Amino acid sequence: MTGKERAALRAKANSLESYIQIGKSGISDALIKQVDDAITAHELIKIKVHLETTPISPREAADELAKALNADVIQVIGGVIVLYRYNPELHKPKQANPPKNTTAKK
């Protein structure tokens, strides 16, 4: 990923709300599944890390999640992680409905 692509994704992430929060349990299989579902649906997601209770640092959490999900870490600022994973399904052209038969029966 180029620096310009990463910068564009950072700018796009500014308006996002955090989808997921990491708390005292840290990163579990259930959390990885939840992040996988969110990143599949949205490509670009924000994750909030509760700094007071989480057993690992936000950078460690970002790296672990990115590795488990084959995603890119866009940025880690304070307790906020931004992850991106391309989803080709979201970029497919929408199929038009087939034309209805408009011929009148005689």
Descriptive labels:
alpha+beta; Translation Initiation Factor IF3
Overall 3D form: elongated
CATH C-level class is: Alpha Beta
CATH names the topology as: Translation Initiation Factor IF3
Radius of gyration, in angstroms, nearest whole number:
19 Å
Number of strands: 4
> Could you report the average pLDDT, rounded to the nearest whole number?
89
Output the number of helix runs. Answer: 3
Biggest beta sheet attributes: 4 strands, mixed
- Low-pLDDT windows of residues: none
Examine the secondary-structure arrangement and name the CATH architecture.
Answer: 2-Layer Sandwich
Strand-pairing-aware structural class: alpha+beta
Helical percent range?
Answer: 25-40%
With strands numbered from the N-terminus, the spatial order across the biggest sheet is: 1-2-4-3
Termini Cα gap: 61 Å
Could you give me the name of the CATH homologous superfamily? Answer: YhbY-like
Strand content: 15-25%
When the domains are counted, the total is: 1
Order of helices and strands: HEHEHEE
Describe the structure.
This protein is α+β, with helices and mostly antiparallel strands. The protein has a single domain (3-87), classed as YhbY-like (Translation Initiation Factor IF3). It has three helices and four strands. The protein has a four-stranded mixed sheet with strand order 1-2-4-3, with helices on both faces. Strand 3 (72-77) and strand 4 (80-84) form a beta hairpin. The radius of gyration is 19 Å and the shape is elongated. The mean pLDDT is 89.
